[in-house]
Every structure is written in structure tokens, then in C-alpha cells.
Write a structure and sequence with these properties.
By secondary structure, the protein is of the alpha+beta class. The protein has a single domain, classed as Nucleoside Triphosphate Pyrophosphohydrolase (Alpha-Beta Complex), CATH 3.90.79. 18% of the residues lie in helices and 30% in strands. It has 4 helices and 13 strands. Strands 2, 3, 4, 5, 6, 7, 8 and 9 form an 8-stranded mixed beta sheet that branches. Strands 1-10-11 form a 3-stranded antiparallel beta sheet. The longest helix is centred in the last third of the chain and has 15 residues. It starts with 11 loop residues before the first strand and ends in an 8-residue tail after the last helix.
Length: 237
């Protein structure tokens, strides 16, 4: 979808107000650990984007890092990055920390942890992997393995200026409320293309900043919503 220069201007054809938000009780670290351990019967909504780039496919991994609360009344947040505007793919877009799986990586989990350390300075010792989501295939031919993990609050992150312009957080409850999931549609080179966006107005001074989360990142978050929405087996309590 990186060929779309101004995704905010593409018409919205649907907002998922008919779907329920995930209850706060299901968005705790304990509840998430339990759900990934049980693995409910479910299907991802999104698996593959229409291809727009002729290139060999590449294996990749991203870290869906959920920051654990520093205080009992706080909630989980999702770690996101603003990719550098000079990068060759998906430049200037909001993304999870991640990248290609290298030959030296033992698996996708190792790749996601390595990339998160290289991109934003996240110490792997602060990360507890709790599960994975199904592979998501981007239009740029990346086969992306989303790795879901809990991240201990603590030391400030240090984004690598060669790859990342900013690191920020969005409340998990906001992203798991489908009233914030907007479906866009347009025709491009004779093909109807659709994708989700989840714009978030981040409080800041002197004024709030709009974080336009869209494309593959929003697609993987939509799959996370579907995973959390799926009923657990009756004997899983």
C-alpha cells in the first residue's frame, strides 16, 4: 500500500460500530497470557494484501509489544514506531518494531526481538513473548509473523535515527474498540483495494498529534481484535 501517497484522503466506506469493544477484563496481562495459552478456535480476518510490487517474497517479523502498567490502575499500551522518511519501503508510516528475518535468527521470535532492540533499543530481557498471530502478507511481498509480547515498564527507549523517527504508545483498549476501525476503499490500476485505518489523537503539547495507523499495521491489529473476540472453550476457565 506504500504507493498510496495520501491514505487519509481515501474514502471511508465502513466503520465497525456494529461490533463490540473488547472488555477491559480481557485486556490485562493475565487474561492475554491465558488466551494465548488456550488458543481459541478462530480465523484471522486479513491474511494477504493485493500485490503492488514485483519482487521476491521475504520473511519478516514484528513485535506487537504491550507495555505493562507501572501502576495498578494503568492499562496496557501498544508500542509503535514512526518509520524514517528516507527508508526504501513503507517510509514515514506507523509500524511495529520489526524487519526481515536474517539467516542468523533462530526463528521469527528471535528476529522480532533483535529488530526491536536494533530499532528502538528495547532490551530483550524486558520482553515476555506470550504468543503469535497468523502470518500477514503485505502488498510489498513481506510475509510478516506478528509476535505478541508483554514489555516491562522501565528504562526509556532509544530509537535508532537511521530507521525510526519516533516511538510512541497507544492504549490497547482504543485499538481493540472497532468503533475506531475505519475501512477505506479505492480503485488502483484496475483493482479494488481496501484497508483499515485506526487514527489516534495522541495528547501532546502544544497540540495533540494525529497518529494515522493504517495498512499492514492496522490489519494485524484487526486480526488481534478478532483473536480476542473469539469465544474461549467452555472448559478453559
Amino acid at each position: 500500500m506504500s504507493t498510496i501517497i495520501h491514505p487519509q484522503s481515501v474514502p471511508v466506506v465502513h466503520v465497525s460500530t456494529e461490533l463490540p469493544a473488547i472488555d477491559a477484563s480481557q485486556l490485562t496481562a493475565q487474561a492475554l497470557r491465558h488466551r494465548f495459552a488456550i488458543q481459541p478456535d478462530w480465523e484471522p480476518e486479513l491474511r494477504r494484501e493485493p500485490s503492488y510490487m514485483q519482487r521476491p517474497s521475504a520473511q519478516a517479523a514484528v513485535l506487537i509489544g504491550l507495555t505493562t502498567p507501572a501502576h495498578a490502575h494503568d492499562e496496557l499500551h501498544v508500542l509503535l514506531t514512526l518509520r524514517g522518511k528516507h527508508l526504501s519501503t513503507h517510509s514515514g508510516q506507523i509500524a511495529f518494531p520489526g524487519g526481515k528475518v536474517d539467516d542468523n535468527d533462530a526463528n521469527a521470535q528471535a528476529a522480532a526481538l533483535r529488530e526491536a532492540h536494533e530499532e528502538i533499543g528495547l532490551d530483550p530481557e524486558r520482553v515476555q513473548v506470550i504468543g503469535q498471530l497468523p502470518t500477514y502478507i503485505t502488498g510489498s511481498a513481506f510475509w510478516v509473523q506478528p509476535v505478541v509480547a508483554l514489555v516491562q515498564s522501565g528504562e526509556a527507549l532509544a530509537p535508532n535515527p537511521q530507521e525510526v523517527d519516533e516511538v510512541f504508545e497507544v492504549p490497547l483498549s482504543y485499538l481493540m474498540n472497532p468503533a475506531h476501525h475505519r475501512l477505506h476503499q479505492m480503485e488502483f490500476e484496475g483493482v479494488i483495494r481496501q484497508w483499515y485505518s485506526m487514527p489516534y489523537l495522541q495528547p501532546a503539547r502544544p497540540q495533540a498529534i494525529e497518529r494515522f495507523i493504517w495498512g499492514a499495521t492496522a490489519g494485524m491489529l484487526r486480526n488481534l481484535y478478532r483473536f480476542l473476540q473469539a469465544p474461549l472453550p467452555s472448559n478453559s476457565a
